[in-house]
Specification:
The complex is a heterodimer of chains A (693) and B (191).
Chain A lengths: L1 H28 L3 H30 L6 H6 L6 H6 L5 H24 L7 H27 L31 H11 L1 H13 L5 H31 L10 H26 L3 H24 L14 H22 L15 H33 L7 H21 L10 H26 L3 H32 L3 H11 L1 H25 L2 E8 L3 E4 L2 E12 L3 E12 L2 E6 L2 E5 L6 E3 L1 E5 L2 E10 L5 E10 L1 H19 L29 H5 L9
Antiparallel strand pairs in A: 1-10, 2-3, 3-4, 4-5, 4-6, 6-7, 8-9, 9-10
Chain B lengths: L2 H22 L19 E6 L14 E3 L7 E7 L4 H16 L5 E7 L4 H10 L7 E3 L4 H6 L6 E5 L5 E6 L4 H11 L2 H4 L2
Parallel strand pairs in B: 3-4, 4-5
Antiparallel strand pairs in B: 1-2, 1-5, 3-6, 6-7
Classes of the chains: A alpha+beta (693), B alpha/beta (191).
């Protein structure tokens, strides 16, 4: 019953999506608003249908209805409820269903926001592009619903009905982050469909102005926020579960999530240049298209199994379907961008080398090179095999040596950019803005170089990190101080109102601060990581970098779905117990390899990471790997701050929520960036434009 | 709509799609291996670290290890790197099995792949030593000759110099002993 309900909902959704697409296009051609409205209704209906299908699947999972093929594949009576529910996205078919749900939800929200209310000067443009954007979103949806009907149908019948199932992949039921990382990734990935649809809609409708970018920027920021959170959560999961003490390995699928992030980040910056100066139109469209294409590419790489990856658990036979879809997306969007780019003539031009525009251009250049490098490294094995017939694998050394200089340059640029005003940066302003941060950076470089060492990259990371941090913090302090002077506000009030008054700008700076934290923490944890391994008897100790641990006890425990072996370890400081840790090994019936649960003791200065490598059969000894990684918690904290910054940016500010969009209002550049005149926040600061919904 | 530009853009998309299409016909885990059944390529590589035990064969850092000198013995060649995670998993097993067969007509050689000798030496030290000697593969000559596609890879070469088996990924004790016993001349087992 559940099975038939879910299968029919998906089938109907496919039909409705196709019908909606046709209605949107035909209605626009015939200038019949009533037909176009049918397409909008289709978007809402589809969301309802996909929600129904997903609920049916969750119900089937929770009630262990093994007559449903997906449940028979991933369900198990012994799996805890939480992991049973999240196994909705634990394997191929379910994850496509979840993808469809998220896409249908986004489509409904995009249609709702795009067709309700007035959009000020851009209203007419938005009204014209909405039907096309809706058609494209429904078209993307139709592809995924087709997958659910044909090759990735999770609602197939199983007969005879098995009494129990194997349960989800052990790696996926070992940590609570599996409930967070995949949905965030889908929200980020799928969210990128909306900006793409708006961009293509603008091209199809022949909308000349920047209406699409007004609509798109917030969507892209929101999707980017989810994607950032997903990547950080994925790193965290890998760190907490895989037991090698690392968080990033340049695996093809990690790269797949990183690539659209790179292009989206580039877009978030270059979009400002378009809004401000009317420049980079074609470029921005290309970035949005690339971002969307890369999300589909990423899914293709994960699902088709054409590249070897640790993420092989979600593979299936749908590679050719995705291949066809990639072909359609690429041909459609490339030909549209190329064929229609004439209508996107650039208005502005670069006035001076030292200006914020230039900083953004460099930012985009670096992000493009970064994207290309990662893409090349990811696809090179495929290219090499196609061209020369040889199997190669591109490992960490390639990615690290290629991307580290880019990261350094971006870190530096993150410091320079916010300090430069638009159009022209007079030398004295540049000097005043950058002098203190530069001096701080040199001092930090000297201190790190003389006291700690660790190689050129580590020193440069700390120096550039300090520089960028100082510049970005300075934006907050000068702004807040100006408010305190002008309005007599207390410091926290001034800071809160400063941020609230220009959410986009200060959200951006906050995201910078988070990114700097991540960069420095990644740099430090790789440069100063040290590890050792020893086999200990009970009562024996091992030490590394001032940390000492003692093996106290070894134990075993049968849990419903697994057998757990653990080691009780005491952390010693000056010979006295200072804490306890318990690294574990989990044995699942369905997996030959044990899955580890490392124990991590986090302090602001860094992590002590213990992984139980092996336990002697008689329980006499345990082999433990001990890793000391400085500053790792700051990666997670920095990630949270980036997400917070993005959240501030996308939240509509209350007082301006009803204001209309100025589309091409001439903008006066601030004479002194950051330092605000008497009524600084709305009037003198042109960045506020973008904060309007 | 500028159709000429659109056509050019479409033409640009074709090779990308074609590449993925080609990729679909390939299995990344299916590694072509022309080597088994053929003579192993010759090599002469500089020893970067002597073995800890008798499995080291008396080689000292700076010596040149020639494959030709090992003819008549079973040779287990292991390609590894300090940046390779899977290599950690097999390290212990390799070291102990090498020691088990030391002086019994089986020689183990570790070839450091795409890595600096200093990193390799430090890695062995961190991992608690290694019973057999390691050599450095300058400019990846040997890796190219052996057709190494990634590390770790382990080659089992019989006394006749012919590659009998190639193992991809970390080896286990069972694989090592099985493969060695398969190619070891029976006369030696009586020792």
């Amino acid at each position: 019953m559940t099975r038939i309900l879910g299968a029919s909902a998906v089938l109907v959704a496919f039909g409705v999506a196709i019908a909606g697409m046709v209605m949107a296009i035909v209605g626009t051609r015939l200038r019949r608003a009533d037909i176009v409205r049918g397409a909008y209704t289709a978007a809402y209906v589809n969301f309802g249908l996909l929600a129904l299908a997903s609920l049916a699947m969750v119900w089937a999972l929770v009630t262990h209805d093994f007559s449903v093929s997906y449940v028979a594949q991933v369900g198990s009576r012994s799996t805890p409820l939480f992991y049973t529910i999240i196994s909705l996205w634990g394997a191929l078919e379910g994850s496509i269903l979840f993808w469809g749900l998220v896409l249908a939800g986004f489509t409904a929200v995009a249609v709702w926001r795009g067709t309700r209310g007035t959009h000020g000067a851009a209203h007419a443009d938005i009204e014209r592009l909405m039907p096309y954007a809706t058609a494209i979103l429904l078209g993307i949806g139709a592809f995924f619903y087709l997958l659910l009907v044909m090759p990735a149908n999770p609602f197939r019948a199983v007969f005879p009905v098995p009494a129990d199932g194997p349960g989800p992949n052990p790696l996926l039921q070992n940590h609570i982050l599996m409930g967070i990382h995949p949905p965030l990734l889908y929200l980020g990935y799928v969210g990128m469909s909306v900006p793409f649809a708006f961009a293509m809609g603008a091209l199809l409708a022949g909308v000349k102005g920047g209406a699409w970018i007004q609509l798109t920027r917030r969507w892209t920021t929101a999707a980017w926020m989810f994607l950032t959170a997903a990547i950080i959560a994925g790193m965290w999961w890998s760190y907490e579960v895989l037991g090698w003490g690392g968080y990033w390995a340049w695996d093809p699928v990690e790269n797949a999530s990183f690539l659209p992030w790179l292009t989206a980040t580039a877009f978030l910056h270059s979009a400002m240049v378009e809004e401000r100066r009317g420049m980079l139109r074609v470029w921005n469209l290309s970035l949005i298209t690339a971002t969307f294409a890369l999300t589909i590419l990423g899914t293709f790489l994960t699902r088709s199994g054409i590249l070897s990856s640790v993420h092989a658990f979600a593979e299936g036979d749908i590679g050719y379907w995705f291949l066809g879809f990639i072909a359609i997306v690429l041909i459609f969007s490339l030909s549209l961008v190329a064929g229609r780019s004439d209508q996107l003539r650039t208005e502005g031009r670069l006035d001076a080398v030292a200006s914020r525009e230039t900083a953004f251009l460099f930012n985009n250049l670096l992000f493009s090179v970064f994207t290309f490098t990662v893409l090349l490294g990811t696809l090179f094995p495929l290219v090499a095999e196609a061209v020369r017939g040889v199997k190669v694998s591109v490992g960490e050394p390639f990615f690290n040596s290629m991307t580290l200089p880019l990261c350094m340059a971006l870190l530096f640029l993150m410091g320079v950019g916010p300090a430069l005003p638009w159009r022209v940066a007079p030398r004295d302003i540049v000097r005043r803005e950058l002098a203190v941060p530069a001096v701080l950076a040199v001092l930090v470089a000297l201190a790190v170089g003389l006291l700690v060492g660790g190689g050129v990259y580590a020193i440069v990371t700390f120096a550039f990190g300090t520089f960028a941090l100082a510049v970005n913090l300075r934006q907050f302090s000068t702004g807040a101080r100006a408010r305190m002077r002008a309005h007599g506000e207390a410091p926290p009030v001034a800071l809160a109102r400063l941020i609230g008054g220009n959410r986009r700008r200060y959200g951006g700076y906050l995201a910078h601060i988070g990114a700097i934290m991540v960069a420095v923490a990644v740099g430090a944890s790789s440069a100063y990581k040290s590890e050792t391994e020893a086999t200990l008897r009970k009562g024996e100790t091992m030490s590394l970098r001032g940390h000492t641990i003692r093996l106290d006890e070894l134990w075993g425990r049968q849990e419903p779905q697994r057998f757990v072996l653990g080691a009780d370890v005491t952390v010693l400081r000056d010979g006295k117990p200072a804490g306890r840790m318990d690294p574990r090994l989990n044995f699942y019936q369905t997996s030959e390899q044990p899955i580890t649960t490392p124990a991590v003791r986090s302090r602001a200065s860094g992590d002590l990471y213990l992984n139980l490598m092996a336990v002697e059969r008689d329980g006499s000894t345990a082999t433990i790997r001990m890793i000391v990684e400085p500053l790792v918690p700051w990666i997670w904290a920095g990630g949270l701050i980036i997400v917070l910054g993005a959240l501030i940016t996308v939240t509509p500010s209350r007082q301006r929520a009803r204001r209309s969009l100025p589309v091409a209002a001439p903008v006066r550049p601030p004479l002194v960036p950051g330092a605000a005149p008497a009524r600084p926040l709305v009037i003198a600061d042109p960045d506020t434009r973008g904060a309007a919904p | 709509m500028n159709w000429r530009r659109a056509a050019i853009a479409t033409a640009c998309a074709v090779p990308i799609v074609a590449l993925f299409g080609y990729g679909m016909t390939r299995n990344p885990r299916d590694i072509p291996s022309p080597l088994p059944g053929r003579p192993a390529p010759d090599f002469a590589l500089e020893v970067i670290r002597a073995g800890d035990g008798s499995a080291g064969g008396g080689l000292q850092p700076g010596d040149t290890l020639r494959f030709a000198d090992l003819k008549g013995e079973v040779v287990v060649v292991n390609f590894w790197a300090s940046w390779c995670l899977a290599c950690r998993d097999e390290h212990e097993v390799l070291s102990s099995v090498a020691q088990l067969y030391a002086g019994r007509g089986v020689r183990f050689v570790g070839i450091l792949y795409s890595d600096r000798p200093a990193n390799g030496i430090q890695w062995i030290k961190d991992m608690g030593g290694q019973s057999y000697a390691s050599v450095s593969d300058h400019r990846s000559r040997a890796a190219i000759d052996f057709g190494v596609y990634g590390v770790p890879e382990t080659f089992f070469i019989g006394p006749d110099g012919v590659v009998a088996y190639k193992h991809i990924g970390p080896v286990t004790e069972r694989v090592l002993i099985e493969q060695i016993e398969r190619i070891r001349p029976p006369t030696l087992t009586t020792q």
